[in-house]
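# nightly structure sweep
# worker-07 picked up a monomer target from the shared queue
# config: single-sequence mode, recycle default, output format = structure tokens
# input follows
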Amino acid sequence: MPQYALGVDYGTNSVRALVVDIATGEELGTGIWPYATGEQGVWLDPKDPHLARQHPLDYANGFYEAVSMALEASGVNPADIIGIGVDTTGSTPIPVNAQGIPLALLPEWQGNLNAMAWLWKDHTGHAEAAEITALAKERREPYLDKCGGAYSSEWFWAKILRCKRVDPAVFEAAYSWVEAQDMIPAWLCGLPDADSIPRGICAAGHKAMFHEDWGGLPSVEFLEELEPGLGTLRARLYAKTQSAGDLAGRLDAEIAARCGLRAGTPVSIGAFDAHLGAIGSGVKPGTLVKIMGTSTCDIMVGEPPEALILGVCGVVPGSVIPGMIGIEAGQSAVGDLFNWWVNLVAPDEAISPHLAPPGERRSGGAGSSRHEHLATEAAKLRAGQSGLIALDWNNGNRTILVDPLLSGLIVGQTLHTSPAEIYRALIEATAFGALTIIRRIEESGVPIQEVVVCGGIAEKSSLTMQIYADVLNRPIKISASAQTCALGAAIAGAVASGGHPDILTAQSAMVTTPIRTFVPSPEAVKTYEQLYKIYSQLHDAFGIGDMASVMKNLVRLRTA
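# output follows
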């Protein structure tokens, strides 16, 4: 009898569910539900561009809506769904009470942004992240050895420490803090309290400085020296972790009834979207998988690197495939960077006055048309023709500088510079950032034999993929699935149910070969080699050199 797995992918702006045949990998039905609250699912503060939160209620409603749509579209008997897997953004920690209920769902905390999920791209803890890095180095702790030598404001402890300082009432009310990747499987399984929530190594190892080499999480002494009272939280977190594909529990009967699923269906341990997206893209030793969306996450697996890879987001055993080291890096703004230009800056009239009726020019549909128009115009340009170079730091730098206070820069503008020229320069900037990451990883002794790209940008933007092939001077292979994160989650669900014995076996059955390859153009490669030298000059000058204070001083003035 046919058997199916359900993968549920919680992204920045929406949740999507995917029904997959575990024998063939055929994707039978998809459901996508945009989050209902916030601005495209994200709660913002106009006074602080570093703040980004989500409401946990959207996670529950998203599961019901997206799963119901996927099941209906698939036409399969819900009773034949044998396993469920979940991926989320991260680090996205949520304050919960002793019963494991997110504080944001309780009447006394409604509307309090600090009681919500602290979304991955929340950078409000940038000062706290710097303090964590400084103290770990001062005490000569090993905690940074597995996460690139510097702690990030996107990560677990920086966000919790920030909460303790700006809203001590929320910190005191929180019995524990739970990553979204762990919270959602626990809710699906109806686990009775916060202490029962199983934790995944993906979030723990990459974002919370968890490693068996030093007994799990950072010591109470370290946390107390960082901030008095912070160490008391450690005992209410976790001492062990599991990998995606391990069993988190079984589907709660009430939740199952609302979706038509079978009560007791196995649910996998959760993981981050990029890590399961890498599985859904066929990641293996020597393969770099780039998951390109609002941001970009780069994932590799293999043996431990020969040296510390400075600036990466973690080198963690079992965070992608059990038995292998997972390596994570990435860029904080890619799709977000292109959307910033298209939706907020480039004037409608300069692009095309006929893309949409006047009242709709800022809508999603018009935005898509604007992207298409700018891409068409930008594709007419040769590499270097615009005379522009940009830095891709509009949301800070994740890898290799690990600095959220860096900001965007465009050099070479004239009175004739067009919106399409800047659009292309921004794409090129993200490609130069990607090349910087690749060079850092290879310098550390980890060979990269192929690059596979997945996500909406890979699927929709041939211009971007060709520029990446030219800048990286490597073939760029496009993943066969348009839903690689949800597919990876479904693979984890299939393994948790026993439908496949392990991730690698499930991968071989459920992942197909890339559908398209972009080949470098020799002429463009030569030009981009010259442009990359200029990019590197700007990267080093504004990131670590003589100009490194410029962007930070602007942030200080804005804040003041």
